[in-house]
UniProtKB/TrEMBL annotation, chain A:
The keyword Plastid does not apply. It is found in: Nucleus. Keywords: Nucleus, Transcription. This is Uncharacterized protein. Signal peptide: none annotated. Residues 325-346, 367-392 have a biased composition (Acidic residues). SUPFAM superfamilies: Transcription factor IIA (TFIIA), alpha-helical domain, Transcription factor IIA (TFIIA), beta-barrel domain. Pfam families: TFIIA. It comes from Riccia fluitans.
Automatic annotation (TrEMBL), chain B:
The lineage of its organism: Eukaryota, Viridiplantae, Streptophyta, Embryophyta, Marchantiophyta. Transmembrane segments: none annotated. Residues 60-101 form the Transcription initiation factor IIA gamma subunit C-terminal domain. Keywords: Nucleus, Transcription, Transcription regulation. The keyword Nucleus applies. This is Transcription initiation factor IIA subunit 2. GO terms for cellular component: nucleus. CDD domains: TFIIA_gamma_C, TFIIA_gamma_N. Belongs to the TFIIA subunit 2 family.
Length: 438, 106
């Protein structure tokens, strides 16, 4: 049949799609030959191109019978197809599947390039780790008991520092990003995001942050940073917890967050010491465990709504959710206000923080509530998008319009020189008239 | 005589694009030569449709979306019926992309 088709190409008065396609292939190859020669490309390459093209055409089901013998599936199609256009009806099933796969492959490979940007971050992350290690051992050695093993293992420390750092920065979500920001930027930047973001985990993070930076920037930053964070998370606690509160017994409840993190050992010795202990304990426990503990405690202490929201955020993916929240709020409030003023402002920060928490809740709640709404909206949009995308893979008409008219919701159009791809099969038309209502 | 690149999106055009991609990727031909081939395809395809195709088609459907941008009409029809000489095909949704036939001098 294929041979018949090949012969039939030029002779048939109403050529089938495949004959037209094969004629186009032939025409293109012949007309490109000069270009190939001028570029010094071997003639075999041209033949290779033609063979590849025809092979792919047959795989796509666009050409029913193999002119070249390459296509395996072709013969069944070829028998029916070439003689009369009616036979084309039988073809579509296999053709569609085959056709789709190549298109998908073609389309996707270029797209997945998003990943690379993250990779560069990791090296940055690694670099910071040595600093915290140096810091920690000094503080930790006095405390000894639990933290010491964590300290010894540099690898673990790095990991843990990682974890806290991520949430603090706001994130962009990646741990590496956070570390980078810490190292590269001055502390004030770091501090700002941390208080907002840290609520559940924030304490650990802040501690870590402080530890790393303490040598360079000691007390002031501590107080500033920690205070807003603790307040945010613990509505009960006040800004300057660590030094005062830690020293004093009564604050322990409010201070529970950091201590629990340190839960393994965290008892208030010195302000800095306590913070370090908490850090180490958190590190040992692993980034996630302290968070859960903290959350549980908060749940008991605080209202269900806040806890639930926090838990949801933490449980699902702490980093991304916080990031989203921080992003929204950091811009306006966090950075300049809290860091620069110093200790005095932490209180307003607390006030501001609590409403922010409420906002966060709202956001999460909205997210919970809205997703259906948003999803619906998206669905509508998706429908449009899908409408754009799906027809391309499934049913698509490419043509030229001669006239398009509309009266009210009645549309009429005349098309010409069209290629219809319906149910995996190509149909050509010289003219087409369409009527449809909107 | 100009010719639209529109038909590169068709199965025959995609097949050619795939084949050219392979040859360019493995260094067999230069990208410039591949572009020349595509341009020749545009020309050949436009000519073939005008000169070799005689069939006519009518179609109906519910217009889901219409757009006219840069002299290109885009319709998305739902529950569309396509009638050709000897067959009727129904599709749930079809996208129609049509360039202006008048812009290309014949």
């Amino acid at each position: 049949m294929a041979q018949v088709k090949g012969q039939a190409k030029e002779k048939e008065p109403h050529p089938s799609t495949s004959t037209v396609y094969l004629a186009v292939v032939e025409d293109v190859i012949q007309n490109v030959r000069a270009d190939f020669q001028s570029e010094g490309v071997d003639e075999n390459v041209l033949n290779e191109l033609q063979a590849l093209w025809e092979l792919k055409l047959m795989q796509a089901g666009a050409v029913e019978a193999p002119v070249t013998e390459a296509a395996p599936a072709a013969p069944a199609k070829g028998t029916t197809g070439p003689v009369t256009p009616v036979t084309d009806l039988n073809v579509p099933y296999e053709a569609t599947e085959e056709y789709q796969t190549p298109t998908v492959e073609m389309l996707f490979p270029p797209t997945p390039q998003t990943l690379p940007p993250q990779t560069p971050q990791t090296p940055f992350v690694m670099t910071p780790t040595p600093q915290p290690d140096a810091m920690t051992p000094q503080v930790m050695t006095p405390l000894m008991d639990i933290p010491s093993p964590a300290l010894t293992s540099t690898g673990e420390q790095i990991m843990y520092q990682y974890m806290p750092a991520g949430p603090s920065d706001n994130g962009s979500g990646g741990n590496g990003l956070d570390l980078d920001t810490k190292l590269g930027r001055p502390q004030p930047y770091m501090q700002h995001p941390s208080p907002w973001m840290n609520k559940p985990r924030g304490v650990d993070v802040n501690l870590d942050m402080n530890a790393t930076y303490e040598e360079g920037q000691e007390d002031d930053e501590y107080e500033q940073e920690e205070a807003p964070v603790t307040k945010d998370f613990f509505t009960l606690s006040t800004g300057k917890r660590k030094r005062e509160e830690i020293a004093g017994g009564p604050y322990i409840q409010g201070y529970n967050m950091p201590q629990t993190d340190g839960a393994h050992q965290a008892c208030p010795f010195n302000d800095q010491a306590a913070s370090y202990i908490a850090k180490w304990a958190s590190e040992k426990a692993g980034g996630r465990n302290p968070v859960t503990e903290i959350l549980s405690e908060e749940l008991a202490a605080e209202k269900d709504v806040n806890v639930q929201t926090i838990v949801r955020t933490s449980s699902s993916k702490c980093l991304p959710q916080r990031d989203g929240i921080d992003d929204d709020y950091d811009d306006g409030v966090a950075e300049e206000d809290y860091n620069e003023p110093g200790e005095e402002e932490p209180q307003p920060a607390n006030e501001a923080a609590t409403p922010k928490i409420a906002k966060v809740e709202l956001v999460t709640g909205d997210s919970d509530g809205e997703p259906p709404l948003n999803e619906d909206d998206d669905d509508d949009l998706d429908d449009n998008d899908q409408g754009d995308e799906e027809p391309e893979t499934e049913h698509l008409v490419l043509a030229q319009f001669e006239k398009v008219t509309r009266s009210k919701n009645k549309w009429k159009c005349t098309l010409r020189d069209g290629i219809m791809h319906l149910h995996g099969r190509d149909i050509l038309f010289l003219k087409a008239t369409g009527e449809f209502e909107f | 005589m100009g010719s639209y690149e529109l038909y590169r999106k068709s199965s025959i055009g995609m097949s050619l694009t795939d084949a050219l991609d392979e040859l360019v990727t493995n260094g067999t031909i230069s990208p410039l030569l591949a572009v020349k081939v595509l341009m020749q395809f545009d020309k050949s395809m436009n000519e073939a449709l005008q000169q070799r195709v005689k069939s006519k088609t009518t179609f109906k459907g519910h217009l889901h979306t219409y757009r006219f941008c840069d002299n290109v009409w885009t319709f998305i029809l739902e529950n569309a019926l396509f009638k050709t000489d000897n067959e009727i095909q129904h599709v749930d949704r079809v996208k129609i992309v049509a360039c202006d036939a008048k812009i290309i001098s014949r």
